[in-house]
Specification:
Elements (H helix, E strand, L loop, with lengths): L8 E4 L3 H6 L6 E5 L8 E8 L3 H15 L6 E8 L1 H13 L6 E5 L3 H6 L12 H4 L4 H7 E2 L2 E2 L2 E7 L2 E5 H7 L8 H12 L7 E4 L4 H14 L20 H16 L16 H5 L3 E6 L3 H10 L10 E4 L13 E8 L19 H14 L1 H10 L9 H10 L6 H10 L8 H15 L7 H18 L9
Parallel strand pairs: 3-4, 3-5, 10-11
Antiparallel strand pairs: 1-2, 2-4, 5-13, 6-7, 8-13, 9-11, 9-12
Helix pairs in contact: 8-10, 9-10, 9-17, 10-17, 13-14, 14-15, 17-18
Length: 469
């Protein structure tokens, strides 16, 4: 991995919470560049703990930013894993010591706005910068007609990966684009796989909802499970016929024994392993899988033919609509940052922490070297939210066989659901009920049950009239 600047010195954050949870899983790492500028105004950022290469890259980027000893600002970070992140952020805010910057997934932005935890970016970041957002980024970060976040990355939740050699062996000459073509490909593959193999891998359990909500959206002609004003479930009304078509297709993957009802992969995050190790002929997986293909198999020499794995958009009912949603993360400014005025030195005196924090975020996501390097290290399995950065990557990724597919998936994805995940989970339950060997309910009855659960969640969470769109 390409290093930036000097080595970061980090130390374990010894808090009561960390001691209870143990180092690593409940803990965090905190530090600065080691180039402390005298009397600098300290801007704090909470980072989520992701892959080691990702964490190191971000910390080294902070080191690079802090090399400037004349700007009057020092960036200090805390690296926190999932178990500590929310606790640490909430407790710091309650103590009046919230981080100036922290990271929020796009699906959780609505709740942050509802809680008044973050501030909108208008007036803090220039219009020219905001105009650089891709359409996907605008949709993901704009709530109630205000932009609340800077996009970090987008990660399509569902793509179809397949073995080119198995396709050739089965006589499949094109990537499946429709339900019918997918079932036809599965039938052909079922005749050439051996007893140790499965035709197709699918996400199961809780990830099933996250992975497939884009397919529900596509099948319904561009409609989510609830009405635009969040007052009513649409599952068994406006969306009924589309849901039936998708569920009947998806159920056939199991009833025809193309897919396994058991989680043989070890989870959604590991599902690509089945394909790389030859246990399936194709699999549904998120775009993150590209990074795993390279780092866990190609670079370690475990994949005999590195060009054998192909990738395409998932088969769908409506060809003119996306059939995946974007996962991913954004940077937000805590509301308290607008109330903190810099006083440490004359260089930044009078500026708010929000302004100083925004300057760092803007640098990180736009600097030509820094902004592209992170995506390139991950083989562009994640996509940027800025048009200018995507233009730069277009020039460097001409030999990346997955780049254009992931780019198309990210830029044509369904809008990211803002409502509570329990509604997405209700859609997942429809699939899980129908694929169960003991299920005796027809598809319309199962959709009716999902419809009732969605309405229950709407009422329980008092969602009516709260849609941010």
């Amino acid at each position: 991995m390409r290093k930036i600047g000097k080595k970061i010195f980090v130390f374990v954050l010894l808090s009561a919470f960390v001691c209870q949870a143990g180092c690593g899983k409940g803990g965090g790492t905190t530090g600065t560049s080691g180039l402390k500028e005298k009397d600098a105004e300290v801007i704090t950022i909470y980072l989520r703990d992701f892959e080691d290469w990702s964490n190191e890259y971000f910390m080294n980027a902070i080191d690079k930013y802090n090399e400037n000893l004349e700007d009057g600002v020092e960036i200090v970070y805390e690296l926190l894993d999932d178990s500590a992140y929310t606790y640490k952020t909430d407790s710091a805010r309650e103590a009046g010591n919230a981080p100036d910057i922290y990271m929020v997934s796009y699906s959780n932005l609505w709740q942050e706005v509802q809680n008044e935890s973050i501030t909108s970016l208008e007036g803090i970041l220039e219009e020219e910068f905001l105009a650089d957002y891709t359409e996907a980024a605008k949709n993901a970060t704009t709530l109630y007609n205000k932009v609340y976040a800077v996009p970090y990355c987008f990660e399509p939740s569902n793509l179809l990966f397949y073995s080119k050699s198995m396709f050739e062996k089965a006589g499949i000459t094109k990537e499946p684009q429709t339900y019918e073509e997918m079932l036809d490909a599965c039938e052909k593959l079922s005749k050439v796989i051996d007893k140790t193999q499965t035709v197709v891998g699918t996400p199961l359990g809780t990830p099933m909802g996250w992975a497939n909500i884009g397919q529900f959206y596509n099948a319904a002609g561009g409609s989510f499970p609830i009405s635009d004003d969040w007052s009513a479930s649409l599952a068994s009304t406006a969306n009924l016929e589309g849901y039936k078509a998708f569920l009947e297709f998806y159920t056939q993957l199991y009833t025809r024994a193309y897919a396994s009802r058991s989680d043989v992969a070890g989870g959604y995050n590991e599902i690509i392993n089945e394909l790389c190790e030859g246990r399936v002929a194709m699999t549904y997986a998120g775009s993150y899988a590209v990074g795993q293909i390279y780092q866990d198999y190609i670079e370690k020499g475990y994949l005999e033919n590195e060009s054998d794995i192909g990738c395409c958009l998932v088969p769908r009912l409506n060809a003119d609509l996306g059939a995946t949603t974007n996962g991913g993360w954004s940077f937000v400014l805590d509301a308290q940052a607008t109330q903190k005025t810099a006083t440490a030195n004359d260089k930044v005196a009078g500026k708010t922490h929000a302004e100083l924090a925004a300057a760092f975020i803007k640098w990180y996501v736009t600097d030509p070297e820094i902004a592209t390097g992170w995506f390139e290290l991950g083989r562009c399995c994640k996509q940027p939210g800025l048009k200018s950065v995507q233009t730069l990557l277009d020039k460097t990724q001409t030999s990346n066989p997955y780049y254009e597919v992931i780019k198309e998936a990210a830029n044509t994805a369904a809008p990211i659901p803002r409502y509570p995940y329990a509604i997405t989970q209700a859609c997942s339950e429809m699939i899980q009920t129908l694929i169960s060997k003991t299920n005796t309910k027809p598809v319309e009855a199962v959709i009716g049950i999902g419809h009732a659960e969605i309405q229950k969640q709407i009422d329980l969470n008092k969602l009516s009239g709260k849609s941010p769109d």
